[in-house]
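Bumping my old thread because nobody answered last time. Still need a sequence for this structure:
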């Protein structure tokens, strides 16, 4: 340790000792001296808590006091800040957050589920107590996008924010694409690498990305968090054939979270999209995340980095602790809760864009004409089409890219085909990023 510290140590209680908690312990140990110089004081874990005291976590926990009842932490005067790395929108994480913020104890969390659902209430508690509520790890893991949006881009009116917000899905999609491996096999690997949520359906069904998008949208637009109006589609129904057809058409498939704000309302959606090869998001691979924000003075900002895993996520948690030690914090959502605007949701059907439609159909005369008639009657104009027969049965895969048109017309095409006995499975629609 150097002798340049300005203050006594920042004393931390760490709750949750899984992937991220373990990473935080390792990072605070490995970079202790540098962190102390940057923070102006050493950052020391004094107390730890998790569900299972006896589990081997691959880190030495003996220097720390084990606490069985985490609800005792908010009242302790020998603890300066509580770090919550349990997860879950409600339950013990939320109880702990409320107790800490009500008791005037600064609070650091990586819990995007809790923030997406209860962020405004928690921010109001922090505001009332005049203390820090920090959550850099909650969105895009190690990328300092919360700081970037809250501080760096704070002068701008942001019209659109979008990006790849889930490391597990990006790892699955890009590994399937590059190595031709199956979905379940790659998901298992993402879990072993510590990327996935405790319940991985939150990842693959797009819910985790929606939690993060909710937070980003509030920061970007100065609007209240509105998780309930995020339209969510995950990657469960993306087939290896879609990835191959998208590649043949000049695209890569990514799970994209996108939010736009304008006079027509707040548009928020998470869905697999076709990303043109010349767009930077097409080159974001593995557990990388990326966020694009378009500001009226700064122009296009592009943030990229590791969105999941112990090291990157711990990096964000400890950055928050350094801010707490420096006494550098402000309103959790970049302005007082009362100043956040209430914005109604926009009508997605009126959006104009291009789309990819995939049909698995019977290989028999008239099927192509049936689909073409449905698109024509719905007012959808076709830009390109690929049709391939399967070698193992008499099915045909038809992949269509439309010209730009209203999304409601694409949905109308599907409605016209609903119930057709030519379709062997439900069609897939993916919008194309422009
Ligand atoms: N793993 C990652 O790459 C990232 C995770 N996060 C978030 O960080 C948080 C922690 O995630 P992980 O470390 O991956 O989870 P994990 O499942 O590896 O660890 C969770 C820890 O919390 C403890 N825990 C769970 N329920 C508890 C309860 N009721 N009482 C006491 N302890 C309890 C477990 O014993 C375990 O030590 C979650 O909110 C997650 O969404 C955020 C960014 C990235
Ligand atoms: N499960 C999440 C972890 C980080 O937020 C992901 O895969 O991105
Ligand atoms: Na982050």
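Sorry it took so long. Here it is:
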């Amino acid at each position: 340790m150097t002798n340049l510290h300005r203050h006594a140590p920042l004393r931390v209680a760490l709750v949750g000792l899984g992937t991220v908690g373990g990473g935080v312990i390792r990072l605070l140990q490995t970079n202790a001296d540098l962190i102390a110089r940057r923070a102006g004081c050493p950052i020391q874990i004094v107390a730890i808590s998790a569900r299972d005291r006896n589990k081997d976590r691959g880190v030495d926990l003996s220097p720390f006091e084990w606490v069985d009842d985490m609800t005792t932490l908010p009242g302790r005067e020998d603890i300066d800040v509580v770090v919550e790395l349990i997860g879950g929108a409600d339950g013990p994480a939320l109880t702990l957050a409320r107790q800490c913020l009500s008791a005037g104890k600064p609070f650091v969390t990586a819990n995007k589920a809790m923030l997406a659902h209860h962020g405004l209430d928690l921010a109001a508690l922090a505001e009332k107590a005049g203390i820090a509520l920090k959550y850099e790890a909650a969105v895009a893991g190690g990328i300092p996008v919360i700081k970037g949006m809250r501080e760096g881009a704070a002068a701008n009116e942001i019209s659109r924010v979008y990006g790849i917000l889930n490391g597990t899905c990006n790892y699955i999609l890009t590994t399937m694409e590059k190595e031709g491996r199956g979905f379940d096999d790659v998901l298992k690997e993402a879990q072993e690498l510590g990327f996935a949520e405790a319940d991985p359906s939150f990842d693959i069904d797009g819910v985790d990305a929606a939690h993060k998008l909710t937070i980003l949208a509030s920061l970007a637009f100065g609007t209240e968090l509105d998780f309930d109006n995020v339209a969510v589609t995950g990657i469960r129904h993306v087939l290896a054939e879609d990835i191959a057809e998208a590649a043949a058409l000049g695209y890569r498939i990514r799970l994209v979270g996108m939010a736009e704000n304008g006079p027509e309302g707040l548009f928020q959606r998470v869905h697999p999209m076709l990303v043109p090869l010349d767009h930077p998001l097409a080159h974001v691979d593995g557990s990388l995340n990326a966020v694009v924000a378009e500001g009226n003075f700064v122009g296009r900002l592009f943030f990229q980095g590791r969105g999941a895993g112990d090291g990157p996520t711990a990096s964000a948690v400890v950055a928050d602790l350094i801010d707490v030690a420096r006494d550098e914090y402000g309103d959790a959502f970049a302005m007082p809760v009362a100043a956040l605007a209430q914005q109604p949701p926009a009508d997605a059907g009126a959006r104009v864009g291009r789309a990819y439609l995939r049909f698995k159909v019977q290989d028999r005369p008239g099927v192509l004409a049936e689909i073409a008639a449905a698109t024509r009657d719905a007012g959808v104009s076709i830009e390109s089409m690929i049709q391939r027969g399967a070698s193992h049965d008499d099915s045909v895969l038809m992949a269509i890219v439309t010209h730009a048109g209203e999304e409601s017309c694409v949905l109308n095409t599907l409605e016209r085909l609903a119930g057709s006995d030519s379709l062997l499975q439900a069609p897939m629609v993916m919008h194309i990023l422009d």
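The first helix runs from residue 19 to 30. Let me know if any region looks off to you.
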